[in-house]
Amino acid sequence: MITNGVTLTQLKENGYLVELPADLRPNFDAHAGDFVRNPPYDPGNRYTMAWQSGITGIAYDPEAIGGPIDSLQALFDPAYRGRVGMFGEIVDMPNLAILATGVAPEISTEEDWRRAAELLIEQRDSGILRDYYQQTYIAALRRGDVAITMAWSGDIFAAKLLGKIPERIRFVIPVEGALLWTDNMCIPKGAAHLADAITFMDYVYQPRVAAQIAAFVNYITPVPEARQVLERMAAEEEDPEEAERLRQVASSELVFPTDTSNLHTYRELPTEEEIRVWDEIFRPVYQSA
User: Where are the domains of the chain?
Assistant: First the structure.
């Protein structure tokens, strides 16, 4: 399972992945959503099939902020000094910062990267930033350490369902856009059971199976028809609490987004030189904090 980005690109470029037989994925062909077919990071799905996807956007506490937020500029606003969280890593944070400068990360240049890094450094050094987080940002939201933070859609949806954060916490796709990423299934060269692997990969594209996975992980399913299955599961469920949870999953825009027009993918880094420059620009931002 590999998220689209530098690692997946390197695996493809170095010939480490098996090309998937196009005639052995009937469920994928019948049920896969448009947004996971022919993705820009793997044209024609030659090497990958989506497992689940997610959105990197903003989560915030409207009570702490004092109102709604709809822009990435809030992450860099001095009004929220010491209350902002960011991811301390080399993929999501740089790409979202590029979006904050008004540039689509997919087509960004080295000049755009440097401008985004300057924005991040100013955020850090001016005290707007509370801290860099990994999965710990959920706990920081719950404690009130941060009032606004970068966030993953499924994390926020699941944390609210499980009562780990207050119901009032909101996840938004900013007006500048957000990042759509996908965890992909792929087969490494040398795998011993190729037929079993592709059979399983195609199996999870059955709507019934996809619905069960979506109900458990709460991220974006690659099978839109899973929504109708979840609705039937809710109607047949005898436990009222579980039935309500299934209805919430089925109706969630964070699991079944209806508009993906303002979602962007990561900047592909197909050469070693691009990887080196990207790392040189962005890694010191959070490692020197």
Answer: 2-53+181-251, 55-177+262-287
The Cα–Cα gap between 74 and 89 comes to 20
Query: For the whole prediction, is pTM greater than 0.90?
Result: yes
pLDDT above 70: percentage of residues in the chain: 100
Centre a 10 Å sphere on the Cβ of residue 264 and count the other Cβ atoms it contains: 23
2-53+181-251 matches 55-177+262-287 in fold: yes
Write down the pLDDT at residue 94.
98
The candidate with the shortest Cα–Cα distance to 161, out of 255, 87, 81, is 255
SS3 assignment, position 8: helix
Residue 88: which H helix or E strand, with range?
none
Helix (H) or strand (E) holding 21: none
Q: 33-47: string of b/e by CB count within 10 Å (b at 16+)?
A: bebbeebebbeebeb
Compute the distance between CA of residue 53 and CA of residue 265 in angstroms, rounded to an integer: 11
149 vs 35: which has the higher pLDDT: 149
- Rounded to an integer, what distance in angstroms lies between the CA atom of residue 260 and that of residue 53? 12
What is the dihedral sign for C-alpha 80, 85, 88, 94?
A: negative
pLDDT(289) > 70: no
* CA pair distance 269, 106, nearest whole angstrom: 10
If you average pLDDT over residues 18-30, what whole number do you get?
Answer: 96
Band (pLDDT 50/70/90 cuts) for residue 1 is confident
Three-state DSSP class for residue 53? strand
Q: Which CATH number is associated with domain 55-177+262-287?
A: 3.40.190.10
Could you tell me which residues come within 8 angstroms of residue 188 by beta carbon, excluding any fewer than 6 positions away?
11, 16, 17, 18
Domain 2-53+181-251 has CATH 2.40.30.130: no
